[in-house]
Protein backbone atom coordinates (compact mmCIF):
# COMPACT_ATOMS: atom_id res chain seq x y z
CA UNK A 1 0.00 0.00 0.00
CA UNK A 2 1.43 3.35 -1.05
CA UNK A 3 1.97 5.99 1.58
CA UNK A 4 2.47 9.74 1.23
CA UNK A 5 6.05 9.81 2.41
CA UNK A 6 7.64 13.17 3.10
CA UNK A 7 10.96 13.50 1.30
CA UNK A 8 13.60 16.25 1.47
CA UNK A 9 15.82 16.58 -1.61
CA UNK A 10 19.12 18.45 -1.78
CA UNK A 11 20.93 19.38 -5.01
CA UNK A 12 24.08 21.52 -4.47
CA UNK A 13 25.34 23.74 -7.29
CA UNK A 14 28.37 25.99 -7.65
CA UNK A 15 26.94 29.00 -5.78
CA UNK A 16 23.54 27.75 -4.60
CA UNK A 17 21.74 24.66 -3.35
CA UNK A 18 18.31 23.63 -4.60
CA UNK A 19 16.15 22.15 -1.83
CA UNK A 20 12.73 20.58 -2.25
CA UNK A 21 10.24 19.10 0.21
CA UNK A 22 7.80 16.56 -1.21
CA UNK A 23 4.64 14.94 0.14
CA UNK A 24 4.51 11.85 -1.96
CA UNK A 25 5.53 13.06 -5.41
CA UNK A 26 3.86 16.45 -4.89
CA UNK A 27 6.26 19.33 -4.31
CA UNK A 28 5.25 21.17 -1.12
CA UNK A 29 8.11 23.62 -0.95
CA UNK A 30 11.26 24.48 -2.88
CA UNK A 31 13.97 27.08 -2.58
CA UNK A 32 17.20 27.85 -4.36
CA UNK A 33 19.45 28.74 -1.43
CA UNK A 34 22.11 31.25 -2.47
CA UNK A 35 25.61 31.05 -1.02
CA UNK A 36 28.09 33.89 -0.67
CA UNK A 37 30.70 33.35 -3.41
CA UNK A 38 33.37 35.08 -1.31
CA UNK A 39 32.60 32.76 1.59
CA UNK A 40 32.78 29.68 -0.62
CA UNK A 41 36.16 30.85 -1.91
CA UNK A 42 37.55 30.57 1.62
CA UNK A 43 37.32 26.77 1.51
CA UNK A 44 40.22 24.83 0.02
CA UNK A 45 38.03 22.01 -1.32
CA UNK A 46 34.35 21.35 -1.95
CA UNK A 47 33.70 19.11 1.06
CA UNK A 48 34.99 21.77 3.46
CA UNK A 49 31.89 23.80 2.57
CA UNK A 50 29.63 21.28 4.36
CA UNK A 51 29.12 23.09 7.72
CA UNK A 52 28.55 26.46 6.02
CA UNK A 53 26.04 25.16 3.47
CA UNK A 54 24.23 23.14 6.12
CA UNK A 55 23.80 26.22 8.32
CA UNK A 56 22.45 28.35 5.47
CA UNK A 57 20.04 25.59 4.34
CA UNK A 58 18.74 25.04 7.87
CA UNK A 59 18.05 28.75 8.21
CA UNK A 60 15.96 28.73 5.01
CA UNK A 61 14.02 25.62 6.08
CA UNK A 62 13.31 27.11 9.49
CA UNK A 63 12.10 30.31 7.84
CA UNK A 64 9.72 28.23 5.71
CA UNK A 65 8.43 26.33 8.73
CA UNK A 66 9.69 22.92 7.53
CA UNK A 67 9.90 20.50 10.47
CA UNK A 68 12.70 18.09 9.57
CA UNK A 69 11.48 15.63 12.21
CA UNK A 70 8.47 14.89 9.96
CA UNK A 71 10.65 13.90 6.98
CA UNK A 72 10.74 10.18 6.16
CA UNK A 73 13.88 10.20 4.00
CA UNK A 74 16.57 12.58 2.82
CA UNK A 75 17.99 12.46 -0.70
CA UNK A 76 21.13 14.19 -1.94
CA UNK A 77 22.83 14.52 -5.32
CA UNK A 78 25.39 11.74 -5.58
CA UNK A 79 28.60 13.39 -6.78
CA UNK A 80 32.16 12.16 -6.29
CA UNK A 81 31.42 8.43 -6.66
CA UNK A 82 32.92 5.72 -8.82
CA UNK A 83 30.94 4.18 -11.68
CA UNK A 84 27.72 2.48 -10.57
CA UNK A 85 24.64 1.00 -12.21
CA UNK A 86 21.52 3.13 -12.11
CA UNK A 87 19.25 2.98 -9.09
CA UNK A 88 18.73 4.27 -5.55
CA UNK A 89 21.63 3.83 -3.13
CA UNK A 90 21.52 4.11 0.64
CA UNK A 91 24.13 6.50 2.00
CA UNK A 92 26.66 4.44 3.95
CA UNK A 93 30.19 5.03 5.17
CA UNK A 94 31.95 3.98 1.96
CA UNK A 95 29.70 6.25 -0.10
CA UNK A 96 30.32 9.15 2.28
CA UNK A 97 34.09 8.61 2.22
CA UNK A 98 34.12 8.61 -1.59
CA UNK A 99 31.86 11.66 -1.83
CA UNK A 100 34.00 13.57 0.64
CA UNK A 101 37.25 13.11 -1.29
CA UNK A 102 35.76 12.92 -4.77
CA UNK A 103 36.82 9.37 -5.58
CA UNK A 104 36.04 9.85 -9.28
CA UNK A 105 38.71 12.57 -9.51
CA UNK A 106 36.20 15.35 -10.17
CA UNK A 107 35.69 18.12 -7.61
CA UNK A 108 32.08 19.24 -7.91
CA UNK A 109 29.49 20.64 -5.46
CA UNK A 110 27.32 17.55 -6.11
CA UNK A 111 29.70 15.75 -3.70
CA UNK A 112 27.96 17.64 -0.90
CA UNK A 113 24.52 16.21 -1.69
CA UNK A 114 24.96 12.86 0.04
CA UNK A 115 26.91 14.47 2.88
CA UNK A 116 24.16 17.02 3.59
CA UNK A 117 21.44 14.38 3.36
CA UNK A 118 23.37 12.22 5.81
CA UNK A 119 23.79 15.12 8.27
CA UNK A 120 20.02 15.55 8.47
CA UNK A 121 19.17 11.84 8.35
CA UNK A 122 21.44 10.78 11.19
CA UNK A 123 20.04 13.51 13.46
CA UNK A 124 16.47 12.25 13.00
CA UNK A 125 17.19 8.54 12.60
CA UNK A 126 15.91 8.38 9.02
CA UNK A 127 17.48 6.92 5.85
CA UNK A 128 19.51 8.95 3.38
CA UNK A 129 19.76 8.08 -0.33
CA UNK A 130 21.30 9.11 -3.63
CA UNK A 131 19.45 8.38 -6.90
CA UNK A 132 21.06 7.74 -10.31
CA UNK A 133 24.26 9.62 -9.42
CA UNK A 134 26.27 11.50 -12.08
CA UNK A 135 28.58 8.50 -12.54
CA UNK A 136 25.75 6.11 -13.40
CA UNK A 137 27.31 3.73 -15.93
CA UNK A 138 25.32 1.07 -17.79
CA UNK A 139 27.28 1.17 -21.07
CA UNK A 140 27.70 -1.93 -23.19
CA UNK A 141 31.35 -2.82 -23.82
CA UNK A 142 31.33 -1.67 -27.46
CA UNK A 143 30.27 1.82 -26.33
CA UNK A 144 33.38 2.05 -24.13
CA UNK A 145 36.02 1.15 -26.69
CA UNK A 146 38.05 3.62 -28.76
CA UNK A 147 40.70 3.26 -31.47
CA UNK A 148 43.49 3.82 -28.94
CA UNK A 149 44.49 0.93 -26.70
CA UNK A 150 44.09 1.90 -23.06
CA UNK A 151 41.73 4.82 -23.77
CA UNK A 152 38.07 4.23 -23.02
CA UNK A 153 34.88 6.23 -23.30
CA UNK A 154 33.20 6.84 -19.95
CA UNK A 155 29.62 7.50 -18.89
CA UNK A 156 29.35 11.13 -17.86
CA UNK A 157 25.82 12.31 -18.65
CA UNK A 158 22.83 14.00 -17.00
CA UNK A 159 21.88 10.53 -15.76
CA UNK A 160 19.38 11.64 -13.10
CA UNK A 161 17.26 13.72 -15.48
CA UNK A 162 17.68 11.37 -18.45
CA UNK A 163 16.45 8.30 -16.60
CA UNK A 164 13.65 10.16 -14.80
CA UNK A 165 12.41 11.58 -18.11
CA UNK A 166 12.27 8.04 -19.52
CA UNK A 167 10.53 6.68 -16.41
CA UNK A 168 7.91 9.47 -16.45
CA UNK A 169 7.27 9.09 -20.18
CA UNK A 170 6.78 5.35 -19.67
CA UNK A 171 4.30 5.90 -16.84
CA UNK A 172 2.33 8.42 -18.91
CA UNK A 173 2.07 5.89 -21.73
CA UNK A 174 1.20 2.89 -19.59
CA UNK A 175 4.41 0.95 -20.24
CA UNK A 176 7.36 -0.08 -18.11
CA UNK A 177 10.70 1.68 -18.57
CA UNK A 178 12.26 -1.79 -18.49
CA UNK A 179 10.19 -2.87 -21.50
CA UNK A 180 10.91 0.08 -23.79
CA UNK A 181 13.71 1.55 -25.93
CA UNK A 182 14.27 5.31 -25.98
CA UNK A 183 16.64 7.98 -27.19
CA UNK A 184 16.70 10.48 -24.34
CA UNK A 185 18.26 13.94 -24.62
CA UNK A 186 19.10 16.59 -22.03
CA UNK A 187 19.61 19.90 -23.82
CA UNK A 188 20.85 22.67 -21.53
CA UNK A 189 24.23 24.07 -20.49
CA UNK A 190 25.49 20.65 -21.50
CA UNK A 191 23.93 18.30 -24.04
CA UNK A 192 23.52 14.58 -23.31
CA UNK A 193 22.23 12.20 -25.98
CA UNK A 194 21.66 8.67 -24.68
CA UNK A 195 20.33 5.30 -25.80
CA UNK A 196 18.12 3.42 -23.30
CA UNK A 197 17.42 -0.25 -23.93
CA UNK A 198 15.01 -2.09 -21.63
CA UNK A 199 15.72 0.12 -18.61
CA UNK A 200 19.49 0.48 -19.10
CA UNK A 201 21.35 3.53 -20.46
CA UNK A 202 23.64 1.58 -22.78
CA UNK A 203 25.36 4.42 -24.67
CA UNK A 204 25.76 8.19 -24.70
CA UNK A 205 28.23 11.02 -25.10
CA UNK A 206 30.75 11.94 -22.39
CA UNK A 207 29.89 15.57 -21.57
CA UNK A 208 32.90 15.96 -19.25
CA UNK A 209 35.54 15.21 -21.88
CA UNK A 210 34.05 17.15 -24.80
CA UNK A 211 32.23 14.27 -26.49
CA UNK A 212 28.95 14.85 -28.32
CA UNK A 213 27.22 17.95 -29.70
CA UNK A 214 28.41 21.49 -29.17
CA UNK A 215 26.73 23.18 -26.20
CA UNK A 216 26.67 26.71 -24.72
CA UNK A 217 29.92 26.17 -22.77
CA UNK A 218 31.24 22.93 -24.32
CA UNK A 219 33.17 22.34 -27.52
CA UNK A 220 31.63 18.97 -28.29
CA UNK A 221 33.47 16.39 -30.40
CA UNK A 222 36.43 17.77 -32.35
CA UNK A 223 38.61 15.81 -34.82
CA UNK A 224 41.44 14.33 -32.76
CA UNK A 225 44.36 15.55 -34.89
CA UNK A 226 43.02 19.11 -34.95
CA UNK A 227 42.55 19.07 -31.17
CA UNK A 228 46.11 17.79 -30.68
CA UNK A 229 47.49 20.52 -32.96
CA UNK A 230 45.44 23.11 -31.06
CA UNK A 231 46.93 21.87 -27.79
CA UNK A 232 50.46 22.17 -29.20
CA UNK A 233 49.75 25.73 -30.34
CA UNK A 234 48.16 26.66 -26.97
CA UNK A 235 50.50 25.32 -24.26
CA UNK A 236 48.26 26.45 -21.37
CA UNK A 237 46.78 23.04 -20.49
CA UNK A 238 44.10 24.42 -18.19
CA UNK A 239 42.91 26.86 -20.84
CA UNK A 240 42.72 24.11 -23.45
CA UNK A 241 40.91 21.70 -21.12
CA UNK A 242 38.39 24.40 -20.21
CA UNK A 243 37.10 24.25 -23.80
CA UNK A 244 35.45 20.92 -22.94
CA UNK A 245 33.18 22.27 -20.18
CA UNK A 246 33.57 26.03 -19.66
CA UNK A 247 34.85 28.08 -22.59
CA UNK A 248 33.88 26.05 -25.66
CA UNK A 249 30.72 26.13 -27.77
CA UNK A 250 28.79 29.40 -27.74
CA UNK A 251 31.40 30.97 -25.45
CA UNK A 252 34.26 30.25 -27.85
CA UNK A 253 32.37 31.47 -30.94
CA UNK A 254 30.21 34.27 -29.57
CA UNK A 255 31.55 35.16 -26.12
CA UNK A 256 28.34 34.21 -24.27
CA UNK A 257 26.79 31.08 -22.76
CA UNK A 258 23.28 32.58 -22.84
CA UNK A 259 21.36 30.31 -25.22
CA UNK A 260 18.35 32.64 -25.39
CA UNK A 261 20.61 35.55 -26.34
CA UNK A 262 22.22 33.50 -29.11
CA UNK A 263 18.83 32.38 -30.42
CA UNK A 264 17.44 35.92 -30.38
CA UNK A 265 20.52 37.24 -32.20
CA UNK A 266 20.10 34.50 -34.80
CA UNK A 267 16.41 35.35 -35.27
CA UNK A 268 17.30 39.05 -35.62
CA UNK A 269 19.61 38.35 -38.55
CA UNK A 270 23.04 37.85 -36.92
CA UNK A 271 24.61 35.43 -39.42
CA UNK A 272 27.31 34.11 -37.10
CA UNK A 273 24.84 33.49 -34.26
CA UNK A 274 22.51 31.71 -36.70
CA UNK A 275 25.33 29.50 -37.96
CA UNK A 276 26.36 28.49 -34.45
CA UNK A 277 22.77 27.85 -33.33
CA UNK A 278 22.04 25.82 -36.46
CA UNK A 279 25.29 23.88 -36.00
CA UNK A 280 24.35 22.91 -32.47
CA UNK A 281 20.91 21.78 -33.68
CA UNK A 282 22.48 19.83 -36.55
CA UNK A 283 24.88 18.05 -34.19
CA UNK A 284 22.07 17.13 -31.77
CA UNK A 285 20.12 15.63 -34.67
CA UNK A 286 23.20 13.73 -35.87
CA UNK A 287 23.78 12.18 -32.44
CA UNK A 288 20.10 11.24 -32.11
CA UNK A 289 20.45 9.41 -35.42
CA UNK A 290 23.53 7.56 -34.18
CA UNK A 291 21.68 6.38 -31.08
CA UNK A 292 18.87 5.08 -33.30
CA UNK A 293 21.34 2.74 -34.98
CA UNK A 294 22.66 1.62 -31.57
CA UNK A 295 19.08 0.51 -30.83
CA UNK A 296 18.87 -1.18 -34.27
CA UNK A 297 16.04 1.16 -35.22
CA UNK A 298 13.78 -0.26 -32.52
CA UNK A 299 12.96 3.05 -30.84
CA UNK A 300 9.73 3.65 -28.93
CA UNK A 301 10.28 7.37 -28.45
CA UNK A 302 12.70 10.27 -28.66
CA UNK A 303 12.47 12.27 -25.43
CA UNK A 304 13.75 15.83 -25.07
CA UNK A 305 14.47 17.40 -21.68
CA UNK A 306 16.52 20.30 -20.30
CA UNK A 307 16.23 24.06 -20.24
CA UNK A 308 16.66 24.69 -23.97
CA UNK A 309 13.66 22.47 -24.73
CA UNK A 310 11.51 25.47 -23.79
CA UNK A 311 12.57 26.76 -27.25
CA UNK A 312 9.73 25.68 -29.54
CA UNK A 313 11.73 26.18 -32.74
CA UNK A 314 14.50 23.88 -31.49
CA UNK A 315 11.94 21.20 -30.66
CA UNK A 316 10.25 21.68 -34.04
CA UNK A 317 13.55 21.38 -35.93
CA UNK A 318 14.52 18.21 -34.08
CA UNK A 319 11.02 16.77 -34.61
CA UNK A 320 11.11 17.51 -38.33
CA UNK A 321 14.45 15.76 -38.71
CA UNK A 322 13.91 12.80 -36.38
CA UNK A 323 10.21 11.91 -36.19
CA UNK A 324 10.68 9.27 -38.90
CA UNK A 325 12.71 7.34 -36.31
CA UNK A 326 10.10 7.52 -33.53
CA UNK A 327 7.62 9.98 -32.01
CA UNK A 328 9.31 12.99 -30.40
CA UNK A 329 8.11 14.15 -26.96
CA UNK A 330 9.26 17.32 -25.19
CA UNK A 331 9.63 17.64 -21.41
CA UNK A 332 11.09 21.14 -20.92
CA UNK A 333 13.22 21.84 -17.87
CA UNK A 334 14.61 19.41 -15.35
CA UNK A 335 13.15 16.79 -13.02
CA UNK A 336 16.19 16.52 -10.76
CA UNK A 337 14.50 17.23 -7.42
CA UNK A 338 11.44 15.24 -8.49
CA UNK A 339 13.69 12.38 -9.65
CA UNK A 340 15.44 12.20 -6.29
CA UNK A 341 12.12 12.13 -4.41
CA UNK A 342 10.65 9.52 -6.78
CA UNK A 343 13.67 7.24 -6.35
CA UNK A 344 13.37 7.33 -2.57
CA UNK A 345 9.61 6.68 -2.74
CA UNK A 346 10.11 3.66 -5.01
CA UNK A 347 12.41 2.16 -2.38
CA UNK A 348 10.20 3.05 0.59
CA UNK A 349 7.18 1.59 -1.23
CA UNK A 350 9.08 -1.61 -2.00
CA UNK A 351 8.71 -1.11 -5.75
CA UNK A 352 12.48 -0.97 -6.17
CA UNK A 353 15.21 -2.58 -4.08
CA UNK A 354 17.69 -0.22 -2.46
CA UNK A 355 21.28 -0.73 -3.58
CA UNK A 356 24.52 -0.73 -1.62
CA UNK A 357 27.44 1.38 -2.78
CA UNK A 358 30.46 -0.88 -2.37
CA UNK A 359 33.09 1.47 -3.73
CA UNK A 360 33.96 -1.05 -6.43
CA UNK A 361 33.33 0.45 -9.89
CA UNK A 362 30.81 -1.45 -12.00
CA UNK A 363 33.36 -1.65 -14.84
CA UNK A 364 37.15 -1.42 -15.15
CA UNK A 365 39.50 -2.07 -18.09
CA UNK A 366 40.62 -5.25 -16.29
CA UNK A 367 37.39 -6.86 -17.47
CA UNK A 368 38.76 -6.89 -21.02
CA UNK A 369 41.35 -9.46 -19.96
CA UNK A 370 38.76 -11.83 -18.50
TrEMBL record:
It is an enzyme of class 2 (transferase). One of its GO terms (cellular component) is cytoplasm. Signal peptide: none annotated. GO terms for biological process: acetate metabolic process. Keywords: ATP-binding, Cytoplasm, Kinase, Nucleotide-binding, Transferase. One of its GO terms (molecular function) is butyrate kinase activity. It catalyses: butanoate + ATP = butanoyl phosphate + ADP. Its EC number is 2.7.2.7. The keyword Nucleotide-binding applies. Belongs to the acetokinase family. HAMAP family: Butyrate_kinase (MF_00542). This is Probable butyrate kinase. It comes from Pseudobutyrivibrio ruminis.
Amino acid sequence: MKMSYRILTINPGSTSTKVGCFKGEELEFSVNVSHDAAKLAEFSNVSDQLPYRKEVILAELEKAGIDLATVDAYVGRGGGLLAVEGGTYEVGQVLLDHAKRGANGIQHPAQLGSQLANEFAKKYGKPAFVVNPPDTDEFIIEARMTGIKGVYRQSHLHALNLKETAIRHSQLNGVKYEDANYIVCHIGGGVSISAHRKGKMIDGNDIVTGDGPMAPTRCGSVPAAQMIRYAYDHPDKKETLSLTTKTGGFVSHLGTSDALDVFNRAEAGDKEAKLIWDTMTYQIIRYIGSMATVLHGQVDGILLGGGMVHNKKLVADITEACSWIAPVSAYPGEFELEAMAAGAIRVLDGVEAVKEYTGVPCWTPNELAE
